[in-house]
Amino acid sequence: MTAERVALVTGGASGIGRAICARLREDGLQVAAVDLKPDAAAEVAMFARGCDVTDESDVDSAVAAVLDRFGAIDVLVNNAGITGSQAATTCHETPVEEWDRVHTVNVRGPFLASRAVLPSMVARGSGHVINIASIAGLVAFPGRCAYTASKGAALMLAKSIAVDYAAAGIRANAVCPGMVYTPMTSWRLDQPALRTQVEDRIPVGRVATPDEIADAVSVLASGRMSYVTGHALVIDGGMTAL
């Protein structure tokens, strides 16, 4: 056990999750990560465990292991997520199984992790749940029905937790990135014509880096903004201001 603050990050092996793990460690937190690729997560976290965030028993076991190792979880970052395949497009063209796959990871995952962690936070009278949502949870991404709906749900899950657990000393917020260059988006952003289309819609003229999203999580996780809960923190280079 440790007196230092502890963060648990889901999907910590790559992209935004990896950057969050590295940044929170720099901030002095003890960082645990769960991912389908635990060896990669172990490169940036103090403790890593393989976990399928869509599996209730897997999530419960992973959370129990983190609590056993560190004694507490002060910050839960629900980062694990997917965009869906190219089949996950407009509503009537999206196969039901693809809709379910996106929502199982992006909505069921944060629900299961939060459900597993919250009892220990309630018992201690403090804690912070941070969901990595998306600006797609605020404005619809054309041709990405399943993803847009799932990120809206992830955002509202954070708001629901904020409302239900405020009296217990627990906060919940969502970070809503715009376009970020990660292994998940590189297939698109590595194509010059497609990247230009994306960046032409962003006032600052470029996509974000994972480290810039990690900066936002760092600020929320620091505890300095103790009155902020139920908030959607948009990090999009001005994209949704247009």
Automatic annotation (TrEMBL):
SUPFAM superfamilies: NAD(P)-binding Rossmann-fold domains. InterPro entries: NAD(P)-bd_dom_sf, Sc_DH/Rdtase_CS, SDR_fam. One of its GO terms (molecular function) is oxidoreductase activity. Its EC number is 1.-.-.-. The keyword Cell membrane does not apply. Pfam families: adh_short_C2. Keywords: Oxidoreductase. Gene3D superfamilies: NAD(P)-binding Rossmann-like Domain. Coiled coil: none annotated. Belongs to the short-chain dehydrogenases/reductases (SDR) family. This is SDR family oxidoreductase.
